[in-house]
Amino acid sequence: MAEVKNVLFAGVGGQGIILASKILAAGLIKAGYDVKMSEVHGMAQRGGSVTTQVRFGEKVNSPIIGKGQADILVSFEIMETGKWLDYLKADGKVVVNEFRIPSAPILVGKIDYPEGILDEVKSKATTYSFDASKIAAELGNIKTTNVVLFGALVKAMGLNDIDWEEVIRETVKERFIDINIKALKLGMEQL
Q1: What are the Cα distances from residue 55, in Å, to 16, 59, 65, 140, 190?
Q2: For residue 53, which phi and psi values (nearest 5 degrees)?
Q3: What CA–CA distance (Å, rounded) separates 167 from 165?
Q4: Mean pLDDT computed over 33-52
Q5: What is the distance between the alpha carbons of residues 65 and 8, in angstroms, rounded to a whole number?
Q6: Nearest alpha carbon to residue 72 among 165, 162, 154, 132
Q7: Most buried pick, 11, 78, 126, 147, via CB within 10 A?
Q8: How many other C-beta atoms lie within 10 A of the C-beta of residue 91?
Q9: Can you give the residue ranges of every domain in the chain?
C-alpha cells in the first residue's frame, strides 16, 4: 500500500480510545506498515474530549491528520462525531457509537444535547451507526465498547487479513482477552 491511510478516533476520556488505537497500530506494524500515532487528551481526565490519530502506509512522515484527510472517523459518542466531521475526506466513512455522554453544560441544564447530528453525518458520509455500548454491556463488560467499534473499523477498512485476535492477546490484560475477542467479532458483524 503506497497510499497513506488515515484513521481518526474521537470520543471522551474513559472510553478506551487510546487502547483501540494502540491495538490498531500494533496490528498494522505486525502487517508490515509504517505507522504513526498521536493522541490528544481533553482538559478532564474522564469526560473531556480525546482523539487519537493513526496513519499507516508504505512510508508515513507525520502522525497528524489535517482537515479533510481522514479516510475513516470512528466516533465513540454522537456529539463528538459532529465535532470531528470536518476532518473526514469527501469519500470517507464514519463508524458511530449511538451513545450519548452529556457534557457539563448539558448536565447542569444550560444547553440541550444537540439533535440531528447523526442525520447530518449520514447526509455527508457513508455511515455505520449502531449502539456499540449496548452490545458491550450485553457481552458483560461495557468497557469493551472500544473493541466492538474497533471490529467495525476493521471490517469498514477491509483489514480482515490481519490476525487481530493475536494482536488482542498481546495487547490487553490476560483476564480480558476472551471478552475482547468476542467484542471484536461482534463489532465486525455490525457491517
Answers
A1: 19, 10, 8, 32, 24
A2: -125, 130
A3: 5
A4: 80
A5: 8
A6: 154
A7: 147
A8: 8
A9: 5-188
Give CA–CA dist 8/24, Å, rounded: 11
Q: Which amino acid is at 78?
A: I
pLDDT bracket for residue 47 (50, 70, 90): low
**Does pTM top 0.90 for this prediction?**
yes
- Pair 37, 47: CB distance under 8 Å: no
Burial 152-186 (b: 16+ CB within 10 A, else e): bbbbbbebeebebeebbeebbeeebeebbbbbbeb
pLDDT tens sequence across 151-190? 999 999 999 999 999 999 999 999 999 999 999 999 999 9
Domain 5-188: top CATH class: alpha beta
